[in-house]
Amino acid sequence: MRAVSYLSALTALVTTTAVAQALQGTWQGSIPHPTEHFDRPYVFEITKDASNHWAAGVSIDKDWGAIWKADSVTVSGRNIKFIVSSIGSSYAGQLSNDGNSMRGVWLLNGQLVPLTMQRPTPPTLWRETPHKTTFVTVQKNVELEVLDWGGSGRPMVMLPGAGLTAHLFSQLAAKLTLHYHVYGITPPGFGASSVPPVPKPVSRVVAPNTYELKPLRADPYGADRIGDDVIEVLNTLHIDRAVLVGHSIAGEYLTSVASRYPQRVAGLIYLDALAEFAFSDGQRYDALFTNSHPMRVRLQPGKTLHLTPNDALLLGMHEYRHFPSVPALAIFALPHHIPGLSGRALIDFNASEQRAVDRMERIKPLLPTVRIVDLPNADHMVWESNEADVLREMNAFLAKLPQ
After folding, report:
1. How many Cβ atoms are within 10 Å of 86's Cβ, its own excluded?
2. 231: helix, strand or coil
3. Which residue has the higher pLDDT, 19 or 190?
4. Which of 59, 211, 323, 401 is the most exposed place for a label (fewest CB within 10 A)?
């Protein structure tokens, strides 16, 4: 009997060890993007240290520079669960018998979504395009991650939208290095860049559990502050004049830099980024937060007001009424393609898109030096949904810039 018990215990130990080894390493999978018509890729990095402590990291949207760490990881047999509170998500999955896949569910926007992760092989492993990474000090205790994809020719610096990192442009950058030297900057607060503390907001209660916020003073996430950070990176890299490329809210960084330092800019490329925060015709359309248009937030009863870097970005918007006299290309995705909407959500979305289209028609006469291209039914990440169109327009625009 003792021999049988010993053999059972040994078998269980070997099985547990094998499962632990199979769980560790890189896993990748994808789910349909909730608002765009491409899949959202996920990468899990699961490790176990010498003290038998499990850890997990999550990368989302091909954004390998931003790895969100799990707060807790629980492993029981072939089952693994972990919580990533920083992005409000969690995963619960089960390892397959062959150890090559995990079938589970991912908490996304409050809903459980099926997510099967695969153990990648060398040919299937998602890879970024080759680049060098450096860190540039732009202000006291603040370093920004700077990617250098190489290439020869005119320097080009790419800036991602809110919550994203420069790694987002990896595939696009690889196609641009044939003719340009391409860099990317991860803004403060995200990815591997520093996360400056968010100043305490000036607020007042306007209704039960509802606060009205004013723009932050000395905001490390303000448009002009990040514009100055971009200039510091250009100085460090010894770039005299650059083509700046911005996506989404990064459009305001382009306008900020070109408005105040036009001699440092050869051209501007707005990738679905010339919204109201990048140029305002004085008519409020969307979410421009200024002293005259304060931001309002609602909190659950008992919750205290706490601002994230994303909140600070919104409060740091600047109303640019005068477009800089710099050559510019603006690629719009209007109306955007968002599948799966119905009922009231579809009505509200269509109304919002129509307001954006109307705004674009209003600002065209105000921007005679800007090449405006509209790609209807494209995604917000327009270089992914309409890569050929974007590359064609970028190359045509850049070819006409003075050397």
Report:
1. 12
2. helix
3. 190
4. 401
Identify the band that residue 9 occupies on the pLDDT scale cut at 50, 70 and 90: very low
**Helix, strand, or coil (residue 299):** coil
Cα(147)–Cα(239) distance, rounded to whole angstroms?
Answer: 14
| Residues 229-247, mean pLDDT to the nearest whole number | 97
Comparing CA positions, the residue from 123, 103, 128, 122 lying closest to residue 31 is 103
* 3-state SS assignment for residue 389: helix
Phi, psi of 204 (to 5 degrees): -145, 150
* Cis amide prior to 335 (ω within 30 degrees): yes
State the average pLDDT over residues 56-82: 80
pLDDT at 345: 79
Pairing of strands 154-159, 68-69: unpaired
**Closest to 331 measured CA to CA, from 383, 284, 290:** 383
Average pLDDT over residues 374-391: 90
Query: Which of 182, 146, 180, 159 lies closest to 258 in space, CA to CA?
Result: 159
Whole-angstrom Cα distance, residue 285 to residue 296?
16
* Rounded CA separation 302/297 (Å): 14
Tokens of 58: 């999550």
Angle of CA points 355, 356, 359, to nearest 5° = 85
Helix (H, G, I), strand (E, B) or coil at 68: strand
Beta strands in 265-345 (DSSP E): 265-271, 295-298, 328-332
Q: What residue type is assigned to position 304 of the chain?
A: T
Say which range, 92-96, 161-165, 178-182, 200-204, has the weakest mean pLDDT: 200-204
Give the span between the Cα atoms of 229 and 185, in whole angstroms.
10
- DSSP states along 236-266: HTT-SSEEEEEEGGGHHHHHHHHHH-GGGEE
